[in-house]
Amino acid sequence: MASTSSQPSSAPPLGLGLRLNLSVMMFLQFAIWGAWFIYWWPFLEHKGFKEPVLYFGNQTGLIFANMALGAVLSTMFAGFIADRLMASEKLMAICHLLGALLLIAMAKIDATTEFMGLNGFTLMMTVSLGYALLYNPTLSLANSIAFTHIPDGQRDFPSIRVLGTIGWIVVGLVVDIITPGKASESPVPLFVAAGLSVALGLYSFTLPHTPPQSKAGDTIPFLKALQLFKNYSFAVFFLVSFVITIVLAFYFSNTSSFLGTGGMESDRASSLMAIGQGVELVLLPFLPIFLRVFGMKMVLVMGMAAWGIRYLLFSQGFALQQASYDYLPWAMVITGIALHGVCFDFFFAAGFIHVDNEAPPEIRASGQALFSFLTYGLGMWLGGIFSGMIIEKYRTKTPDGSTVMLWNDFWLVPSIGVFIALGVFILLFRSPIKKR
After folding, report:
1. Spatial CA neighbour of 314 closest among 251, 246, 391
2. pTM to 2 decimals?
3. CA distances from 290 to 154, 277, 302, 406 (A)
4. Residue 296 near residue 431, CB atoms below 8 Å
5. Which of the following CATH numbers is that of domain 16-428: 1.20.1250.20, 1.10.132.100, 3.90.640.10, 3.40.190.10?
6. In the chain, where are the structural domains located?
7. Highest mean pLDDT: which of 189-203, 218-232, 267-281, 341-355?
8. Partner of 321 for a Cys bridge, out of 29, 45, 329, 427, CB 3.0 to 4.6 A?
9. Under a CB-based contact definition with an 8 Å cutoff, are residues 379 and 244 in contact?
């Protein structure tokens, strides 16, 4: 198991064949997500899902939040299956092959679609939720497969996980090239994701066999994973992670619109956002060094602080652009995008390692699922809904009847939320002392 000490690992080296096998898995896993998710919000608006929904912002916000709602509803269930009933690699294959069909359906539905008495909004809500129920569990399954077979999670996981970042970057650039300036209006990103989903579904049968590790008579792994909350610092870690990913959803749901014609006037949102993944790519292999030098708590603090600073840079960058500054606004926005690498590596990647260090082997899949449930799931779901509500609050009409977005005020909301969560974490979290 990984150690939180500063001593070099005594585990055997990771074999080249296993490294390549798991790296391809990670590449495809995140290429699927990166192909379409960046443009999902503006694509939905282009498809006509703009109507307000009582108490829940608008239709786009609710549909967007389905991706996270799928994690809320399915991730723990999938963790139970992987820990008790089915080999993880087979469950991965089933989820991705079925998910490809639903991605194609999502590409074809718009607000005017009708099928069996259902309107377009109901159809898109249903199909996108179905896809979310299939894709979200594969995030924790991929981590569980990797952590089960690598000799040392803290040493080896970052160098494998970095291929997921490469996959996200590569597919984002490809989408921008084949749909120049039109990705937010095109179904192509969803079709690309569907093709990649088929590829990973078939490839999953080549992954190392990862059978259930819990016995039939054991306590349900889901309930065992909840027992991790008995550890005070673990409970703080989980709860702050949940809160901070509520505001993370603001980035994924609104940055492409912010960078586009309604904000910073760029037509290359995916390529620009790939800068963040580029920084993530550079930093991730060095994560074990940061963990040894600074410790788990400080690395997590740096990741959270980067989130708050990023949103603040977005807010003030847009304000300066409105004041007709030439270069400084874009410099601030690009810096904010680049901070995504720090945000993700120092919080999410480090967080998965922290879970692996602390969760007993027999509930490792459910421990990873619990973290995904609170972050990719419940936190992102609420964040998608809240961002839709905040969007409506700061979208205003000009005297000539056109609509403008007060992006500087919008981005201040998640920035303040991050810094509050960061203060709670610094005060209450204690670094683990258990050596594994």
Report:
1. 251
2. 0.71
3. 11, 18, 11, 38
4. yes
5. 1.20.1250.20
6. 16-428
7. 189-203
8. 329
9. yes
